[in-house]
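Sample intake — NAD(P)-binding protein
Collected from: Favolaschia claudopus
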Amino acid sequence: MRRGIWAFIQDQWTTQPPVLQKDLNGQTVIVLGASTGLGFEAAKHFASMKPGRLILCCRSQSRGQTALEKIIEATGCAVAELWIIDLGDFTSVGQFITKFEQDGGRLDILVANAAVYADKYEPTNDGWETAFQISNLSSPLVILRLLPIMLRTAREYSTSPRLVVVSSETHYFYTPNKKLQEDPELLATVGSAEYCSPTNMMFRYVLTKLLNILFVRALTARLPPSTPIIVNSVNPGLCHSELTRTMTGILAFFDRLTNWIFAYSTEVGSRHLVWAALADATEVQPESLRGAYIHGQKVTEPSDFVISVEGEKMQNRIWDELISILAKVDPRVTETVNECLAPDPPTAPGL
């Protein structure tokens, strides 16, 4: 599928549906990146639906505490909690996962929303470019390590847990060059200092969002058909947020101008995250949500590259590399893959 500027403008100037409401009684919801922006607004919506437990995952204790207090004040939710996780630090991610495992609770909804905008190379202590590690290494690590808990939740409570990865329609406007597509160590390349030139960093955000979609499709393709978990990616649309707050110069000017003319409020954008997490047979056939790219609160075909033979090859190649990288960070990733997922499929899911 191709999307042009006019389609983008029409969507941004179209009144969006109200937030989907569900009864989340007894269910546990985790939102990564919940201190501000889309994550905060989505968490606030979940808080109003009487969940059994709502976990706000934030990097900053002070900003997270402020977000928690605002949500409690706005919704009266007495089961909201603040948990600290720095997705730019594998040690912090491991501590978060261990804490949740020891907690022993269920997990029904996981929204992987955390992301940062980066226009220059800044490495983490783990040696990866920061935006890439947060979006394309640490977020999948959390997902894969918590997958067994979601499977257990499905068995014990007869539910269909949801994994929602926040992506972007900007992926329509980016196709990796042939050299990158065929790189046998693509992830190692894009996360390295050598690759992160000023020119390549101009496309860092859209590349991370493309990789989000490929991860969702690769994971879905390896979930056995009987697995009740639904994994999807979602485009929240262009929204007012703090994502590009570090922009400077002419880029910052055009970013603010574009937002002023076209952007939804952050609350409106968060409705799309909630829909991806809660839509069921009354809104759309659940099977169509598996591995889906969701745009405008409906299942939509992703870019031509994503569904192409080349996109499928890249998808499978980076899956293998991702598991290799994450297994070195946490060997239990290999256990999850072996115990919960099927062998590599011959083709990607036909969405």
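Post-analysis note: The mean pLDDT is 91.
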